[in-house]
């Protein structure tokens, strides 16, 4: 039921609007791109091909048993409309989908089909119908198709939405729908995920016989059939539904995707395009990073007493990251005005950045490059795809994906080392985790050259966790904790803090603890080095966890591994399809001391079983000690993932990895039992010594 | 154009024109920006300096609403509050003014790029078309700590009802929140206030111009288990009486008026036809009694897809269902469409029912003294039933006898049950004799909020276990598990069950998994069999420690925070666990947890352990009432749940039977 709310502008109304505000910018961006197509509200008469009676009668998919929906046929055709002489051409895509619905969930999933488009574009020839199991058909009428304006901005048109609501839909029905969309004036890069949430029996993409039809490539689609008669067609069959998995590689590496990239008559092949890009960007970079007199002077001054390459580059890096104000971070009104003024302009030259003492990410990187060049280093602009998209751009038309990430490559003794001082808070020697392991284009005016960005070591991304606790006889654990984060572990938290507030960071951190220990009272949280890359991030807090130790009759049972207690399960799925890729190698080092309650003694404690190898791909080691004099129980844990550099694994390794995580969890939650001390029969002098309670190390 | 540049063009963001067309900040905003900020709790992201709404009714029933808002951003988390908006109804209202400013150090920050107000649809999920829209603006990406953001909007339109309403509720602290109502001289207004903080609202002026103001609202951040209306201070309702010759706004001065207005709108919509009649016959074929017919018809309508179209809202069509025959033919509809269709189908089956308007959440606060359509946003059905139908959702009324209330839009809440958000709420029947609200029942916790979990564990060699478990229940638990089945693929369901088991049972391998759903009792359950190697921890000396809480204990809420700002809303729950651990020959219990029993106004808890025929049986019962706990009682509530957490243990210690107790002799190696 919908009644217009009272229009009295209360805060409640305003607060309800907040979620919409977050979409404002994407809406504007989408409007600027004009990437979608406009639907005409009319429904055209359509001819439909007959449907195989076996499909109509089917109650379950033969190729994909137990699915809710199966796309029987998905066809898409790109064509050129108009002519270059008569007002220009436009690209159109004609689309047709035929889907079989097997279950009530399928009815819910496919009952509404939506297309979004920009008002500058157009969509025509829309039609849809439902075919019942007995072959009876029902075409969608105007009243089954709803057009609405999702968002509009003055002077920038409207973002519209068309919704087909299939009438009388039931399990067993087949639905068909088609539409033709205008895409833009010419083809740059069109990318289609042909593997969607439903399995597809047959997927066809056809490029019509256009003047400049582009080149078609596909990734992660085995057994493609092609046909070049009258254009180009690629046919894919039996594509399973795409189901994401935890720690999976980027979608472009694992999900069926077809991309059509523009071809350029002046460049004979992709190699020529790679070269042009390399030359063009390399040229521009060399010009922007020319070491002028003032740059040379600064570089010399900064490295006056630096002996090694590493020391010199570290000085330059530190200067660029700390002394040059990064305008990517809002810190003052004056800076704010500069950011806005300069936001869409070309980058300042390195010399100007040095003079102004502030700059954007790209400007700071260019200054670093100029300073390095001033010292005689060979320096290149390195372009790569974000690891969120793909690792390896050495694929046909891979050049189309490398515009996102830029770093500075410096040749040190014949090896390329990568730097990104424009990324605030990123420690020297590291690149953003989204760039680690990525293939780069080392922009060069002479030849195409590729490199690979190195991956940080597990010790670079380590956390040291120290807890000093007291356990009460009622099972309450209370004490002081210190956690130190390094490398990417620190960058992520520091970066997060920039966009919120100290209190918000504290709240989120507290929630991390209460998510695994719901009754934990966390207080006195203090942070160190949240706003500098120079030192590791440290957080200290007090914690009290009622009921941490279980009372089992007279005994107390507890897991000394406080930092791992209550962690959710990793790799619950029984099977794995895709490789496993962790964000980066990492280490954890735990140092826990628990003063046991008076009147209790350890009851035959055992140590957790070590897991894997600490110096290998996956390993954990434990060490337990007990000091009777102070009733202090010590628990040390060392864990490393990718200490040997391996942090990505083949799907075949899943069961081994899953098993290792299960063993790790078992050891991490290993329990210790306490029992009340027996009353001494006769008084005897006690010799308290520090003795190993149990040890288990590699 | 150089082809290289064209090639590169794809990588270059389009330069945007820098335009500065902002109006000069008004005095009211500059003055608000000078207001001192009082002491606030640490971490308060922002404080509202002014929130002022002026509603002016014109003699012909037209209205203008001016809204002024100023907020000081105190830290990074507060930047997102540099945003504003105004809602309106398309084709009916006009947004005449929408301007925003950012003030820093008493001066305006003028971005080179103009900040556009974006016009967005406010349609919710399932709504394919809606006239409900909003204009929104954000300066969040420009804001710095200490900035003041302000905006002013002016909308014009016509009064839909001869009423005015305003709500005071907030997350952010506020210095002053003001609502002014201006009426033409010959209009009358009867204001009334209600709400937990109504006494703090200061009213100044009087007919024809009133101003109500609330000062110093506190910061009310997100907190777990906050009661539904925890942030509400007060509502204001003003009944307007225009002169006799001004008849554009709908006048509702009594519940009978609202009933008549609603019934007029719905006239002719509850139609029938041969297809509908045939469908009823088909669905009720083989149904021997009224209850079976009710179940068959209600389930059919509930299973129709939820699709809403909000059109002609100013005419009241937001309350007018589509024709029943059309909804049946199309197979989709919203709450009123579905209720209306079911009403038509029941009528075909000889069963009388009434459309009923309700409020999705906070329905218990519907004010009997304010007969207003604005108090409702949902439609359900009241079905007349005889004494033979005894279901929890039946209410005995003096006017219509026994009424079974049913929500056709909640696909997982079966006939006889009610969604938790409607229980205890006040609803209004659209029936000829209807002149007052009806209160829906709070359904009994023993039958309608019961969650039972039964687990049997068999201890094997090396500490391995094999388990058999079943969990679910009728009522709210049944609805929850039904929802999971309806919306999750079989594979994802298995994975989520494995994850749940894995939280306690390390390396649990799910062997069998199935679900069951009884449409009569409403009992929906998950059953699974699993195994895990090395689950029990074997201790030196022959002792074994094993946890019995294999399905974890997340049903008991936790309140770790020492301080609390908002009242706690406890949902009713009766949670019964029974875990049986079958011991292999030669293994006996060494130590079991003590029996525990806790009771408080916030619930009760009991756990017992016993050994029966070579098995340990652990039972645990947690009972929570439906209750709103005020902040003043938070410490006591927290104490109770901490006691539950301390007592809520499930590990047992086992030993070999041939060995004497460990305390009196060295344990076996």
Key traits:
heterodimer; A: 698 residues; alpha+beta; nine-stranded mixed beta sheet; eight-stranded mixed beta sheet; 22% helix; globular; B: 669 residues
> C-alpha Rg of chain A, in Å?
31 Å
Q: Quaternary status of these chains?
A: heterodimer
Indicate the low-confidence ranges of chain B by residue numbers. Answer: 1-22, 661-669
Main structural class of chain A: alpha+beta
Shape of chain A: globular
Largest sheet of chain A: 9 strands, mixed
Instruction: Please outline the major beta sheet of chain B.
Output: 8 strands, mixed
Strand order of the largest sheet of chain B: 5-4-9-2-1-11-14-13
Number of helices of chain A: 13
List the chains of the largest interface with their residue counts: A-B, 121 and 150 residues
Q: How many helix segments of chain B?
A: 11
Mean of residue pLDDT values of chain B: 90
Mean pLDDT of chain A: 84
Please report which band the strand proportion of chain A falls in: under 5%, 5-15%, 15-25%, 25-35%, 35-45% or over 45%.
25-35%
Alpha-carbon distance between the termini of chain B? 86 Å
Number of strands of chain B: 38
Low-confidence sequence ranges of chain A: 9-43, 683-698
Evaluate the radius of gyration of chain B. 31 Å
Q: What do you see in this structure?
A:
The complex is a heterodimer of chains A (698) and B (669). Helix content of chain A is 22%, strand content 34%. In chain A, the strands form 8 sheets. In chain A, strands 22, 23, 24, 25, 29, 31, 32, 33 and 36 form a 9-stranded mixed sheet that branches. Chain A has an 8-stranded mixed sheet with strand order 5-4-8-2-1-10-13-12, covered by helices on one side. By secondary structure, chain B is of the alpha+beta class. In chain B, the strands form 9 sheets. Chain B has an 8-stranded mixed sheet with strand order 5-4-9-2-1-11-14-13, with helices on one face. The longest helix of chain B is centred in the last third of the chain and has 15 residues, at 490-504. The interface between A and B is large, with 121 and 150 residues.
């Amino acid at each position: 039921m919908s009644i217009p709310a009272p229009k009295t502008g209360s805060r409640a109304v305003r607060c309800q609007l907040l979620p919409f505000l977050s979409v404002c910018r994407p809406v504007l961006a989408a409007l600027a791109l004009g990437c979608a197509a406009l639907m005409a509200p009319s429904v055209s008469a359509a001819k439909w091909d007959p449907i195989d009676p076996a499909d109509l009668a089917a109650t379950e998919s033969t190729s994909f048993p137990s699915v809710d929906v199966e796309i029987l046929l998905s066809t898409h055709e790109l064509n050129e409309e108009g002519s270059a002489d008569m007002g220009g051409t436009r690209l159109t895509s004609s689309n047709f989908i035929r889907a079989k619905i097997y279950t009530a969930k399928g009815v819910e999933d496919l009952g509404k089909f939506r297309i979004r488009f920009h008002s500058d574009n157009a969509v025509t020839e829309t039609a849809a119908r439902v075919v019942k199991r007995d072959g009876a058909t029902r075409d969608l009428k105007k009243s089954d198709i709803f057009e609405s304006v999702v968002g509009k901005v003055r002077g920038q048109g409207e973002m519209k939405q068309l919704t087909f609501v299939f009438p009388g839909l039931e399990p067993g029905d087949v639905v068909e729908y088609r539409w033709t969309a205008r895409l833009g004036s010419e083809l740059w890069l069109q990318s289609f995920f042909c593997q969607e949430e439903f399995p597809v029996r047959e997927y066809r993409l056809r490029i019509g016989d256009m003047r400049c039809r582009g080149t078609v490539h596909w990734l992660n689609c085995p057994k493609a059939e092609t046909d070049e008669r009258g254009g180009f067609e690629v046919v894919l069959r039996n594509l399973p539904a795409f189901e994401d998995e935890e720690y999976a590689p980027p979608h472009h590496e694992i999900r069926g995707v077809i991309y059509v990239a523009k071809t350029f008559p002046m460049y004979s092949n992709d190699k020529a395009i790679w070269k042009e890009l390399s030359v063009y960007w390399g040229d521009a970079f060399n010009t922007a990073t020319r070491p002028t007199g003032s740059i040379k002077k600064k570089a010399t001054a900064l490295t006056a007493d630096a002996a090694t390459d590493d020391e010199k580059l570290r000085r330059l890096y530190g200067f660029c990251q700390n002394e040059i104000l990064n305008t990517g971070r809002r810190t003052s009104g004056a800076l704010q005005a500069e950011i806005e003024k300069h936001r869409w302009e070309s980058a300042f030259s390195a010399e100007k950045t040095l003079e102004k003492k502030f700059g954007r990410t790209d400007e700071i990187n260019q200054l670093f490059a100029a300073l390095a060049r001033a010292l005689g280093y060979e320096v290149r602009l390195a372009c790569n795809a974000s690891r969120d998209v793909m690792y390896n751009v050495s694929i046909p038309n891979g050049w189309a994906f490398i515009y996102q990430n830029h770093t500075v490559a410096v040749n040190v003794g014949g090896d390329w080392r990568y730097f990104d001082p424009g990324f605030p808070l990123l420690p020297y020697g590291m690149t953003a985790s989204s760039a680690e392991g990525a293939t780069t284009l080392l922009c060069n005016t002479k030849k195409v050259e590729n490199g690979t960005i190195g991956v940080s070591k597990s010790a670079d991304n380590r956390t040291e966790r120290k807890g000093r606790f007291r356990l009460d006889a009622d099972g309450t654990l209370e004490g002081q904790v210190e956690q130190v984060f390094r490398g990417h572990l620190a960058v992520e938290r520091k970066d997060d803090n920039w966009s919120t507030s100290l209190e918000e960071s504290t709240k989120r951190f507290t929630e991390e603890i209460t998510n695994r220990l719901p009754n934990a009272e966390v207080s006195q949280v203090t942070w160190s080095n949240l706003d500098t890359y120079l030192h590791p991030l440290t957080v200290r807090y007090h914690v009290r966890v009622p009921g941490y130790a279980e009372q089992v009759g007279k005994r107390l049972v507890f897991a000394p591994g406080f930092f791992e207690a209550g962690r959710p399960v990793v790799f619950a799925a029984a099977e794995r399809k895709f490789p496993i890729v962790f964000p980066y190698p990492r280490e954890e080092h735990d140092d826990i001391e628990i003063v046991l309650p008076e009147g209790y003694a350890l009851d035959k404690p055992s140590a957790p079983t070590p897991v894997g190898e600490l110096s290998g791909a996956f390993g954990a080691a434990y060490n337990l000690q007990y000091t009777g004099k102070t009733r202090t129980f010590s628990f040390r844990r060392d864990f490393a993932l990718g200490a040997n550099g391996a942090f990505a694994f083949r799907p075949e390794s899943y069961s081994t990895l899953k098993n290792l995580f299960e063993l790790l969890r078992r050891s991490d939650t290993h329990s210790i039992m306490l029992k009340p001390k027996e009353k001494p029969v006769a008084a005897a002098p006690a010799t308290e010594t520090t003795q190993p309670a149990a040890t288990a190390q590699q | 154009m150089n082809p290289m540049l064209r090639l590169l063009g794809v990588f270059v963001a389009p330069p945007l024109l820098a335009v500065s067309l902002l109006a000069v900040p008004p005095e009211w905003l500059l003055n608000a920006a000078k207001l001192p900020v009082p002491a606030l709790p640490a971490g308060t992201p922002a404080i509202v300096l002014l929130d002022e709404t002026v509603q002016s009714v014109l003699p012909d029933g037209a209205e203008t609403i001016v809204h002024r808002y100023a907020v000081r951003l105190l830290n990074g988390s507060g930047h997102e509050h540099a945003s504003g908006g105004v809602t309106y109804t398309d084709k009916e209202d006009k947004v005449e003014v929408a301007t925003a400013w950012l003030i820093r150090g008493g001066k305006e920050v003028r971005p080179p790029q103009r900040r556009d107000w974006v016009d967005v649809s406010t349609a919710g999920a399932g709504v394919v078309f809606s006239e409900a829209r909003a204009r929104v603006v954000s300066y969040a990406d420009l804001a710095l700590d200490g900035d003041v953001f302000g905006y002013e909007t002016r909308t014009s339109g016509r009064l839909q009802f001869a009423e005015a309403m305003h709500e005071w509720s907030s997350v952010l602290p506020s210095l002053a929140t003001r609502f002014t109502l201006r009426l033409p001289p010959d209009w009358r207004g009867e204001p009334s206030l209600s709400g937990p903080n109504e006494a703090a609202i200061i009213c100044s002026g009087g007919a024809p111009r009133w101003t109500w103001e609330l000062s110093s609202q506190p910061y009310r951040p997100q907190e777990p288990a906050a009661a539904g209306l925890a942030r509400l201070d007060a509502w204001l309702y003003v009944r307007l009486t225009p002169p006799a010759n001004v008849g554009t706004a709908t006048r509702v001065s009594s519940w009978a008026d609202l009933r008549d207005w609603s019934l007029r709108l719905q006239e002719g919509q509850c139609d029938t036809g041969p297809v509908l009649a045939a469908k009823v016959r088909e669905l009720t074929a083989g149904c021997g009694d009224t209850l079976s017919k009710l179940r068959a018809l209600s389930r059919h309508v509930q299973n129709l897809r939820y699709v809403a179209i909000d059109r002609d809202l100013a005419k009241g069509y937001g309350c007018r269902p589509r024709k029943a025959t059309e909804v049946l033919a199309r197979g989709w509809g919203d709450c009123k469409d579905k209720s209306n269709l079911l009403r038509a189908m029941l009528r075909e089956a000889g069963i009388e029912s009434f459309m009923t308007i309700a409020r999705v959440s906070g329905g218990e606060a519907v004010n009997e003294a304010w007969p207003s359509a604005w108090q409702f946003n949902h439609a359900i059905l009241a079905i007349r039933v005889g004494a033979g139908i005894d279901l929890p959702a039946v209410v005995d009324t003096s006017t219509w006898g026994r009424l079974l209330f049913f929500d056709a839009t909640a696909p997982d809440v079966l006939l006889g049950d009610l969604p938790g958000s409607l229980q205890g709420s006040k609803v209004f029947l659209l029936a000829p004799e209807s002149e007052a609200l009806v209160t829906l029942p709070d359904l009994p916790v023993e039958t309608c909020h019961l969650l039972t979990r039964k687990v049997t564990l068999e201890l094997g060699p090396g500490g391995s276990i094999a388990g058999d478990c079943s969990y679910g229940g009728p009522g709210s638990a049944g609805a929850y598990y039904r929802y999971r089945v309806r919306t999750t693929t079989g594979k994802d369901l298995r994975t989520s069950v494995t994850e749940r088991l894995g939280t306690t049972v390390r390396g649990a391998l799910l062997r069998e998994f199935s679900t069951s759903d009884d449409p009569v009792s409403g009992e929906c359950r998950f059953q699974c069999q699993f195994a895990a190697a090395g689950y029990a921890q074997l201790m030196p000396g022959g002792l074994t420690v094993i946890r019995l809480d294999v399905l974890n204990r997340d049903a008991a809420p936790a309140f770790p925070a020492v301080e609390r700002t908002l009242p706690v809303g406890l949902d009713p729950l009766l949670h019964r666990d029974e875990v049986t651990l079958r011991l292999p020959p030669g293994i006996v219990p060494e130590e079991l947890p003590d029996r525990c029993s806790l009771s408080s106004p916030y619930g009760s808890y009991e756990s017992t352990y016993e050994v029966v025929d070579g098995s340990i049986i652990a039972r645990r019962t947690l009972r929570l009432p439906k209750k709103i706990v005020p902040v003043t009682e938070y410490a006591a509530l927290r104490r109770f749940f901490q006691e539950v957490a301390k007592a809520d243990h499930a590990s047992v210690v086992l030993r070999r039977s041939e060995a004497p107790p460990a305390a009196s002799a060295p344990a076996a190696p």
